[in-house]
Amino acid sequence: MSTSSEHQTHLVLENYIGGKFVACGDSIDSYDPSTGQVYCSVPDSGQDEVNAAVAAAKEAFPDWSSRSPEQRAQVLNKLADLIEANLDEFAQAESKDQGKTLAFARTVDIPRSVHNFRFFASSVLHHTNDSTQMDHMGCLNYTVRSPVGVAGLISPWNLPLYLLTWKIAPAVAAGNTVVAKPSEMTSVTAWMMCKLMQEAGVPPGVINIVFGSGPKAGDTLVGHPDVPLVSFTGSTATAQRITERSAPYCKKLSLELGGKNPALIFADADLEQCVATTVRSSFSNQGEICLCTSRVYVERSIYPQFLEKFVAAARKWKTGAPSDPGSNNGALISKEHLEKVRSFVALARSEGATVHCGEGVDRLELPAQHAGGYFLPATVLTGVADSSRVMQEEIFGPVVCVSPFDTEEEAVARGNNVRFGLGAVVWSRDVGRVHRVAGRIQAGLVWTNCWLIRDLNLPFGGMKSSGTGREGGRDSYHFFTEVKTICVKH
Question: pTM higher than 0.90, yes or no?
Answer without folding.
Answer: yes
